[in-house]
Design a protein that fits this description.
single chain; 15% strand; four-stranded antiparallel sheet; 196 residues; three-stranded antiparallel sheet; 2 domains; elongated
Length: 196
């Protein structure tokens, strides 16, 4: 089995880049340019990766698509001819993978036999419900800010979101418990969260 980090998996997976790229040149308001993947990749420049035009059922351009097959690069890059471009439309599809593969790549956090699925899911639900639910909510808030405005948007909210957690009863008990354990040179006990 190939070992890949999440970044490597997402950037080097056998992705079918069904790139129906309809774009305009940034220098001029020229006509639309659509890349025809029924022809060879004349003028394309491979920087890294193993790129080819292949038959891909369901691809938007005559069932032909630009496909990348390398799995040993951190990033795979191919440059389209011409450009620079703006108003670019690109469609990306990934081949489905099994749960076992998703676990090996670090995408899935739990991989269990089908017969153990319900029990494992129930245990995970109970663990999450007993955990730091306010921290989960804060993390979700920051992820939403990041997804719409990037790191800068999340950074702007970080202090306001975090301060509410530090002022809460759960955090204060956690700090006191950890400090007491540190003074005794022992592991801190498991904290029971009350959602406060």
């Amino acid at each position: 089995m190939i070992k890949l980090s999440r970044r490597q998996f997402m950037t080097t997976t056998a992705a079918c880049v069904s790139a129906s790229v309809a774009s305009r040149f940034a220098r001029s308001a020229g006509p639309e340019q659509v890349f025809d993947f029924t022809k060879p990749l004349d003028g394309w420049q491979t920087i890294t990766g193993n790129w080819a035009v292949e038959n891909v059922p369901g691809a938007s351009r005559n069932e032909r698509a630009l496909v990348q097959r390398a799995t040993d690069n951190e990033y795979n890059v191919i440059l389209a001819p011409g450009g620079p471009y703006r108003d670019v439309g690109v469609s990306v599809r990934f081949k489905p993978i099994s749960g076992r593969e998703a676990g090996a790549f670090g995408i899935a956090t739990h991989v269990v036999p089908e017969g153990e699925l319900a029990a494992t899911a129930t245990a995970l639900i109970q663990q999450l419900a007993a955990g730091p639910t306010r921290s989960y909510a804060a993390t979700r808030t920051l992820l939403k800010a990041w997804s719409s405005g990037g790191v800068a948007a999340a950074d702007l909210m970080m202090l306001d979101v975090a301060m509410e957690l530090y002022d809460g009863a759960d955090a204060q008990r956690g700090f006191a418990s950890t400090a007491a354990a540190f003074d005794k040179d022992i592991e801190p006990p498991t904290l029971v969260f009350e959602g406060k």
